[in-house]
Amino acid sequence: LVDLRGGHSWINGLRLAGGFSHNYVCGLHHYANDLRQVYPGYLDLTDLQVEGFDIGVAVGALPDQRAIANQQARVQDGEAIDAPLSELVYTNPRLTNCPRGFYMRQPNGKVTILGGRIHSESSMWKGYDTSRTFALAVEDAGSELAMIGGTLEHVQGATGTLARVTDGRVVLASVIVETTVPSYVDGTGVLVIENALNNGINSNERAYLEVGPGATGSFTITHSPIRYPPGRAVPAGAAAVVTSVAGPGGGFRPRPDFECLFDNVELSDIAFAFGGARYLPIVRGVQASFRNCTITSLDRFGRRAQLLRLDDGPNLLTGAVDLTGASIPPAS
Questions:
Q1: What is the pTM (predicted TM-score) of this model?
Q2: Which of 44, 175, 246, 273 makes a 20 to 30 Å CA pair with 283?
Q3: Cβ atoms within 10 Å of 7's Cβ, excluding its own
């Protein structure tokens, strides 16, 4: 609806409503297609409200654009070039009722989101393929995005992803997280989560994070909980907290070069079980390190009780990390 190619500006209180129409690709598209006309960086958007679009906000190339041309190129309207879309600050945005919330695919793109709410929601869209949904996605090695505070949500349906990082870097700091689906990392993607609030996944069988088959990046979570539903009934074939997959929601495929770091993390009601020919590890198919972590659960009085400590070294719990998939039950 809004084609934004400028920078060095402050935009306050912009409100966009798409009416759940498939005629719009996104609510706000910020990009550059000719650097001879305008410099696109240094943009501040405050109290942006976007509702009822397929994609709420897109920075850089849209998903259906193939290659991204170099900075000297001049391309048609709607297509992005490799341009310095940096020092972009979104303060208190509200992206609601958008199946795909915030999308970024921009070489030399640097975005900071301060507070606000990004909510992936597709229930109002008839026949929408929910596997395509996400709250936040970054898909270029030159893209970096930090969200500080606010709320990131994907609470409708059992398919799709919360944060999808297939290239580039995403940092979620002091963000309230509520989701029914995993986040997903692939390619050069790096996902960092710091001091998250709530940080629960409301699912009995899904992973908290899925790692794709081409992943060469990393995942770091510090001073945060990872919470599953208290007293969850764990079905046969339930996923580990972090697991490597053939694609979003796909079957197991090991990615032993991918690195995870858990630092001062409370793993709550994760249903970790070990020993025997089949068991449920904490991490399956990728490398993992643990520093001062705990496994907790609610007792019969509803109080949170520490069950086990989790640290690297000789005291690391047997079976906490399964690189090869030996913990997967044999086919019957």
A1: 0.94
A2: 175
A3: 20
